[in-house]
């Protein structure tokens, strides 16, 4: 049947990409339908119940700054909060949160159900309606035909999903969920490049069967960090402890003994797995000289006994899994509630996408999340938000938006994907960003809220809170610049105890704050009232301390801007550029970058090749 309503945006899939995509489109005023297999699994974390971590919390905070749901749900569902790299520089500091799986899901669902312009429908999308080169709708497995101006696909690990435990395998989207076969076949008919990847998850353990007595405890930080810029500690549920244990040489013997029945080592699985989240059999095989690997034992929630043993993801046969678990300290009598498994799925070469995440071949069709070769909830959420926003913009007849690499990790993520593609599940790290000092997790709101407001993503409450904060920072910076400390005064004496030499002349409080020995707390109250808001104080301190480095990064960005501003037409013929090697021509042809800057970032495209391209582009005029 034809559904009696046409939407601006249809989002397929209610995982981390799909929920943010549908929320973003609806916030921008687009009539939006979220079409998903099962309403009960909206916001489901397929693997470990944790949000954030290095590079990832940067994305979560960017999603938050743009009005998204992930950070808010994390504050409502988080049962252990920690700041990683707390002693290192602010650029690499990251927040990691252990979440109660059920509370997180409930928070996401409640945010979705409260969103205006957003309707949810439970059914599988089996087919796309394509007219000419434009998508105009979706057909469900029950034959309902939904029409829309744009469609965002966020099918995660479900497309052609195949689950492996030992040498047994079956079709599935993740344990307990159906795969998406019909849609995968339909997409394979379209002119996209498709390949297979794989990922895996560990067996889950019943806490009642674990002996915690000899295990190391790990508690969260105090005071408890907060994920959302609008969040606060009072929102957090009860906080709990995690534990640490280790594999040992017996565990490794058990694993080696089972490798002949491992789907990865017997060639059954062809897809490449996540390098930074390898299975335990991978770790034992690759790091043969190590006789122990750490395992973090993480509670799955406050109202369940299930534990997530982080570090022993495996697809070995179940009998081997039992033996390997029992070989680990604390797990000698552990009962496995769910076996570990690996899953192989289709992903689409992200070089076939535009910076908006619209596909190059089908107008109005966007891809976001794991379907683009990434791994992780945070990477998915960030792409979802971008794709949903751009789908709404297109439906409203407006220009697409995509942040640059110097504006957001989201910009780095999308640029990396569409420029270089990926051969293995892509995850975010701070090392992927060349402008790390600008792209900190503490300033994502300052970088993006204004743009979010302009796009219609940021509501009045967030905008008011942000504007107050931005004004408070400016006021406090002005006060520090205008307030002076004179030598041989009690104020000078108060800071001199921390300085190598007494003050030789008068200094503003801002000058003093730039000194490595002094922090905001040391200087702000020397004269006048320091600000009480921790976020404001943190921002004032970081901007003062790193002003020199930040200015240098800004100069570098300006220098490279000319390349960013040089477009390459979509029909540009690389074979015409004389002097380019055939290898470079092929690389450029495979990716078809839209700017000279993006061309320069393709691995193997040399500065000399960029100069030749520039000459040819100038000739074309
Ligand atoms: P998903 O979260 O997979 O959501 C997809 C959604 O789309 C689901 O709700 C599904 O029901 C729905 N859907 C799919 N097809 C259709 C259709 N045709 N019609 C309607 N609805 C549809 N990430 C890590 O970072 N580290 C890990 O160690 C890790 N391990 C993993 C282990 C396993 C076993 C799995 C399954 C995933 C793992 N991941 C891991 C990946 C992580 O779960 C994903 O990166 C993340 O969930 C991707 O989000 P997404 O929104 O793209 O897709």
From TrEMBL:
It comes from the Bacteria. NAD(+) binds at residues 273-287. It is found in: Cytoplasm. The keyword Cytoplasm applies. InterPro entries: FAD/NAD-bd_sf (IPR036188), GIDA_C_N (IPR049312), MnmG (IPR004416), MnmG-rel (IPR002218), MnmG-rel_CS (IPR020595), MnmG_C (IPR026904), MnmG_C_subdom (IPR047001), MnmG_C_subdom_sf (IPR044920). PROSITE patterns: GIDA_1, GIDA_2. One of its GO terms (cellular component) is cytosol. GO terms for molecular function: flavin adenine dinucleotide binding. Its cofactor is FAD. Keywords: Cytoplasm, FAD, Flavoprotein, NAD, tRNA processing. The keyword Flavoprotein applies. FAD binds at residues 13-18. Residues 544-615 form the tRNA uridine 5-carboxymethylaminomethyl modification enzyme C-terminal subdomain domain. It holds the Pfam family GIDA. PANTHER family: GLUCOSE INHIBITED DIVISION PROTEIN A, PROTEIN MTO1 HOMOLOG, MITOCHONDRIAL. NCBIfam families: mnmG_gidA. NAD-binding protein involved in the addition of a carboxymethylaminomethyl (cmnm) group at the wobble position (U34) of certain tRNAs, forming tRNA-cmnm(5)s(2)U34. Belongs to the MnmG family. This is tRNA uridine 5-carboxymethylaminomethyl modification enzyme MnmG. The lineage of its organism: Bacteria, Pseudomonadati, Pseudomonadota, Gammaproteobacteria, Cellvibrionales.
